[in-house]
Amino acid sequence: MNLYSAPTDYSLTKSIDFIYVGDSRAIRVRHPKANGVISLHGAHVLSYQPTGEEDLIWLSEDAKFDGKTAIRGGIPICWPWFADAASPAHGFARTSEWQLHAYQITQENALITLQLKDDQGTNPTWPHPFKARLLFEVGEELNVTLEIMNIGGHPWTFTGALHTYLNIGDIDTLSVTGLGQAFIDKLEDGTPQAEPATLSVASAIDRIYTEPKEEIVVHDPTFGRDIIIKNSGHNSAVVWNPWQEGAQAMADMPDDGYQNMLCVESAWYAPTIEEGQIVQPAKTYQLTTCLSSRPR
């Protein structure tokens, strides 16, 4: 799927267009330093491609763009809860329709801000006044910031993640450093474990690393590059790949799709929402991930 050759629906500037991806409206950025696409459905980053490089973001060939279903790949927004802490899984932000709040083009980057507010659709599952913004900066780096504002009169807590799917050459040849050694293994009943500091993936993985370093690096010899991940506002880094059996069980992922993706997520993890990050009235919290690359 070539998002950059899709017909323009409406142009905001010579560098920023509205396009349709299936039934979902999206914003396409074409900047001298990099290109990017973000869907209004879920404030979901679909692509980030530095000039002259392979895309850093993996998007499933079989992803559904019906304006209702969560999109497989990209950077889903998991909020106001992560995983199955409540229903629907990973919260409602990733299947909500966000609105364009602001945009700007500079010599260094393009900046897009999307916004979501509480309404009658969110109140049954999340009875808290809030305003959420996603700040999307496309340049030599991709900066994605989820900004959460408590606009009510009482504190509340949340968990969440920026569920980044990285585009890799071959899962069998990559390695990851900077995750730390301590992790919770979701495939082993949440058992805390530890292992050497360099991760190689040879089977299904679903881990919450509880002591990640400031910089996580995915070493990808097949594409001849390192992907550098710098997170902030998080308390953990989640690493996930469903492997062959998991991919075959998903209607929106090719059977061999697991070979070219690895999720490395900026997450605020807690076993329950009540144990999550607290946001006081009139306060704001930010969860951020920054992606860049360098040749090996």
Automatic annotation (TrEMBL):
It comes from the Bacteria. Keywords: Isomerase. GO terms for molecular function: isomerase activity. Transmembrane segments: none annotated. The keyword Translocase does not apply. InterPro entries: Aldose_1/G6P_1-epimerase, G6P_1-epimerase, Gal_mutarotase_sf_dom, GH-type_carb-bd. The keyword Flavoprotein does not apply. It catalyses: alpha-D-glucose 6-phosphate = beta-D-glucose 6-phosphate. Its EC number is 5.1.3.15. Belongs to the glucose-6-phosphate 1-epimerase family. This is Putative glucose-6-phosphate 1-epimerase. It comes from Vibrio zhugei.
